[in-house]
Amino acid sequence: MKRSLTKQIMVIMMSLVVGTIVICFLLNTTFLGTFYTMQKKNLLMESYETIQDASDEGSLYSSEFDQDFDKMCSNQNLSIIIMSADGTPMRSSVNDIRLIQRQFLDVIFGTTVRDRVMVRTDQYILERVRDADMNNEDYLVLWGTLDDGNLILMRTAMDGIRESSKIANQFLLYVGSCAIAGSVLLSILISRRITKPIVQLSEISQKMVDLDFNAKYVRGGWRKKRRDVPGSIQAEKEKMEKGNEIDQLGLHMNQLSDQLERTISELKTANNELMKDIEKKEQIDEMRKEFLSNVSHELKTPLALIQGYAEGLQACINDDEESRDFYCEVIMDEADKMNKMVKKLLTLNQLEFGNDQVYMERFNITELIQGVVNASSLLLEQKGITVEMDLPEEYVWADEFKVEEVITNYLSNAMNHAEGEKKIRIFYEKKDTCLRISVFNTGKPIPEEDIDNIWIKFYKVDKARTRAYGGSGIGLSIVKAIMDSFHQECGVINRKDGVEFWLELGL
């Protein structure tokens, strides 16, 4: 089968090459002379029109036309003479004027052998003649009159066509011989190239049986799955669609392989998504249980206090006014804590579910920090805490009101945990595209096992202490949610003598 295909390709290619050479040889022999003659005829008529236009413009016999006249005669191999009615030469392209005058008279009075008249008009005649004085060479001759009454004769030799045709045919024979030899070699190479993909297609089909879809067929042989850009893959696909049966078979196998791989991938993806959905549902159930437990725990203590002190008021345990005021203050304080916690939960819920819109604007972060610190100055003084900050004026891009909430949470957290020297230091670290704002307070470091958990809502490192200053464990969760809505980073670092909380905002 392989030898038969090779022979068939060799015969076809050799037939095409030999047939092309024979046709070109016949066309050269049969039509090259005619084509050459037509070109010469058109050349003579165009040259006549050029001379006629120069005559009409009055520049034909002036020195201005000399260069154009010489160029026309030399480039187009023309012999031209223009004479007056009495035989006086007006312009000639040859030095031997007497010779061309005699030839002109021979043409006019019919002493030359005329083959045939090709064009006849009222102004000129264009015919093919044979000059007996020039070894019977053939010429194309145009003779007649110009509009100014002068006579004109133009002629060009036809002897070059025979030599040109002979040279062209000899060259064609040399090229044809080389082409035949090349076609034999090329046919062998092509036949091998055709049979090789068939074997490779068999190997690809075996890999598909083994569920290996990485091997793909491409023109010229298969290889591992391609890493081409989509445009080149589409172009290659179009080439295979327009190719032979082997290319189309390879394309169909690629499509079958892709479809099988895609189907298996979709099944695995669907199975993976199903597992994720199951895990997500379990996580949601856990989060729901944890949330209810945390909320219940956080609300249980203030509700118990409110209930206890309210019952005490109702039972008139202490009738003095000072005791009643104390009971009312406890009830109001616990109710206020519950109200703040509910508001924070609502805020956190809006942030986590993306319901709270972010308004990005450029503002002075230094002024904002100074405003938050000034608003807390009375509380700082009561707690004996000093704040150190020497901040340069900086502008950032963010939601100003949300950033104020973050700074407030950081400062409040620092005040509640400041110990030892009781100092809070606020400082900047400027980077290429953002500004890092840090709030440091002296005190105990956060245990390493708790650092990653402090951003989780209701998580408390020291629950007793958090309860003492009324913390709910939601503040840092709100900070994290706000920074996520900005697509910016925040974090905490344990220092040698305290804790540093930081956030980054775009410049």
Describe this structure in words.
One of its GO terms (molecular function) is phosphorelay sensor kinase activity. With 507 residues, the chain is an alpha+beta fold. Helix content is 59%, strand content 18%. It has helices at residues 2-57, 66-75, 97-108, 160-209, 230-241, 245-315, 321-352, 365-375, 377-383, 400-417, 448-451, 463-468, 475-486; strands at residues 79-83, 89-92, 113-120, 124-131, 137-145, 151-157, 215-218, 221-224, 361-364, 386-388, 395-398, 423-430, 434-442, 490-494, 498-506. The strands form 4 sheets. The chain has a 6-stranded antiparallel beta sheet, with helices on both faces. β4 (124-131) and β5 form a beta hairpin. α1 packs across α4 (160-209), α6 (245-315) packs antiparallel against α7 (321-352) and α7 runs parallel beside α13. The longest helix has 71 residues, at 245-315. The chain starts with a helix and ends with a strand.
